[in-house]
Amino acid sequence: MGLNYRLEKNIRDYTEIRTSFDALAQRVFGLSFEQWYRDGYWTDRYKPYVLLDGGTVVASIAVNRMQTMWRGKGRSYIQLGTVMTDPQYRKQGLSRCLMEQVLRDYCRSCDAVYLFANDSALDFYPRFGFERAVEYQFSCPVTPNPEAAQRLDMENAEDRALLQRCYRRSNPFSRLPLLDNEGLLMFYCTSYMRDRVYYLPERETIFIASYDGGTMFCYDIYGGRGQTLEEILAAASPPQIHTASLGFTPICTEAGRLSPLLEEDETLFILRGKENIFKGSRLMFPRLSHA
């Protein structure tokens, strides 16, 4: 790593390093992990590798251990995220050093390695063997049959516990469900998605959604076994909704259409030589699994 920088792989429980990492994340991305840590949601599934200059974090790449199911079999994937370098330390090869170390540590012990790249870094990741993959998003017509959905209060401990219980029942409609990662779920649901978490008490099902005109964007569904996806979407739709776009790929896609997903700063890269389920399959990683 060079004489001037120190590598640390376990920063969560070291206050000074964690605080410096958080400060860099705020400067680069406008993100803070500190409240998430204090709430107890930062688990061993999120592991930043950082380089320090003295006591200051100047670069990082975070390893996110992801569990999912694909065609009936469990999969262990590594998603890389929080790739950042202090502007004053760029063009010194720090991200390259971190990437090489991460791949040495994890490449052999997982089924796949992937990341979502910023537009400014599209030429960087192929140097390490990553190749682009195209995601497809599912949308379908909806006939609303609205039920009395309760918006959960993420400041309320009972509502957070309800969300976690439903999450443990997973999304029975998802072709590629995110499993056993409550930490990442709560990162979203206590910040960006805090006002989008709804509960259908008669169905014992939680859905996370936003609405724009006649379109509902349903990020994910937890619970709902013994029901159909069409029933859940209809129950979650106010009268003006006519289309649902999903943040996950359903098992059955015959009722709608799959369209290439093109988003700024969200280009999917997958490491060559490992499993790549996107070759020959039109799907997407669940939107709430992005780390």
TrEMBL record:
<dbReference type="InterPro" id="IPR050680">
    <property type="entry name" value="YpeA/RimI_acetyltransf"/>
</dbReference>
<keyword id="KW-0808">Transferase</keyword>
<dbReference type="InterPro" id="IPR016181">
    <property type="entry name" value="Acyl_CoA_acyltransferase"/>
</dbReference>
<feature type="domain" description="N-acetyltransferase">
    <location>
        <begin position="9"/>
        <end position="153"/>
    </location>
</feature>
<dbReference type="Pfam" id="PF13527">
    <property type="entry name" value="Acetyltransf_9"/>
</dbReference>
<keyword id="KW-0012">Acyltransferase</keyword>
<dbReference type="InterPro" id="IPR000182">
    <property type="entry name" value="GNAT_dom"/>
</dbReference>
<protein>
    <submittedName>
        <fullName>GNAT family N-acetyltransferase</fullName>
    </submittedName>
</protein>
<dbReference type="GO" id="GO:0016747">
    <property type="term" value="F:acyltransferase activity, transferring groups other than amino-acyl groups"/>
</dbReference>
